[in-house]
């Protein structure tokens, strides 16, 4: 069985927490493949609030119990690496940096031009 990635938005301060080890461990079993939720690779790449990262020592340490919980059940665990690029938002970045993208153009498609930044707040893509 393959467990696909799901964006859960449950990593305060972008650091994996113990409840994530419990969550992934509950879904693991021998021979299964679990793909972690999208995990941001740089501080300027956030497109959703409370998503985990893997670019700081604290984040790497936070992922270790998660990986151990999955592997203890005999499953394989992959981390989906993520940078939101054009759909990142400075309100979500730790130091409020502007997003980095291959294009300076704003998103104009109405289906994607609003970005969820937490609570019930949606803002225009920068």
UniProtKB/TrEMBL annotation:
Cofactors: FMN
Gene3D superfamilies per UniProt: Aldolase class I (3.20.20.70)
NADH:flavin oxidoreductase/NADH oxidase N-terminal domain: residues covered: 1-104
Top-level taxonomic group: Eukaryota
Keyword tRNA-binding: no
Pfam families for the chain: Oxidored_FMN (PF00724)
Key word Ribosomal protein present: no
A GO molecular-function annotation: FMN binding
Coiled coil regions, renumbered to chain: none
Keywords: Flavoprotein, FMN
Similarity annotation: Belongs to the NADH:flavin oxidoreductase/NADH oxidase family.
Entry protein name: Oxidored_FMN domain-containing protein
Annotated organism of origin: Haematococcus lacustris (Green alga)
